[in-house]
Amino acid sequence: MGSRPDPKAVKLTVKSIQEKKGREKIAALTAYDFPFARILDGVGMDILLVGDSLGMVLLGYESTLPVTMRQMLHHTKAVACAAKHALVVADMPFGSYQSSFEKAERNARRFIQEAGADAVKLEGAGPSVKTVKGLVQAGIPVMGHLGLTPQAVHQLGGYRIQARDQEGFKELLEDAHTLEEAGVFSIVLECIPPEAAQAVTEELKIPTIGIGAGPHCDGQVLVSYDMLGLLETVPTFVRKYANLSNCITEGVRNYVRDVREGRFPHER
């Protein structure tokens, strides 16, 4: 008998992600460059999300709003080059899909054709639903995003928990069903009460991916720089699995010391 193929070497698809619902939890992290993406992909990550969070994480912006298509395409292409297993999902940045469907379709196609993404992610429901439906009909897989939607941070009054009352929960549930009917293959649920996330997850046939939404979603996603301890301030729901900031600081401090004291370069 031949050896079984390495499951990490099998490229995941939208369908294979959907088939995980009810069978196994989906693991996702953000990725913004080739070295990080290669490491994450190599350990069997299911989804690599090229988030517009790169504006805050990599570029020092105060929000995701200034992030451009050019920046997102640049980083998505780097991640896609590394992804041999994970599904690569690219955030469509603010202004890239809201004004017209023609613009949305053109930009979404660029993510697929130029940058090598497997799918795109759009925030919210409402006016976005028609766009989602059109993109799916055009053969472009779409992930939805409900709850705290960072591109609408000013409308939401800041980064705060959403769907906290009955009215908010009802709207969330309706939006989730509407997006599912429009054809999204999964939905990110961000910063909502665990019981709300559980209800949405149980009602939908597609997977939910939680971030600050409790344990009942079909999968979880975090900003990789948060969970690896590279940023000073992180959301309260984040669990730090490493403290790379300290490791890097120590390594760089030792390098500076050795250069100044003549220990590097040295004879081997």
Strand content: 5-15%
Largest sheet: 8 strands, parallel, barrel
As residue ranges, the low-confidence spans are: 1-5
CATH uppermost class? Alpha Beta
Distance between the termini: 48 Å
Rg result? 20 Å
Globally, the shape reads globular
What CATH architecture would you give?
A: Alpha-Beta Barrel
The average pLDDT score comes to: 94
Instruction: Write the CATH homologous superfamily.
Output: Phosphoenolpyruvate-binding domains
Write the topology of this structure.
Layout: H1 14-18, E1 26-30, H2 34-42, E2 47-50, H3 54-57, H4 69-82, E3 87-91, H5 101-113, E4 119-121, H6 128-137, E5 142-147, H7 153-156, H8 166-182, E6 186-190, H9 194-203, E7 208-211, E8 219-222, H10 224-227, H11 244-260
Parallel strand pairs: 1-2, 1-8, 2-3, 3-4, 4-5, 5-6, 6-7, 7-8
Labels describing this entry:
8 strands, TIM Barrel, 268 residues, alpha/beta, 40% helix
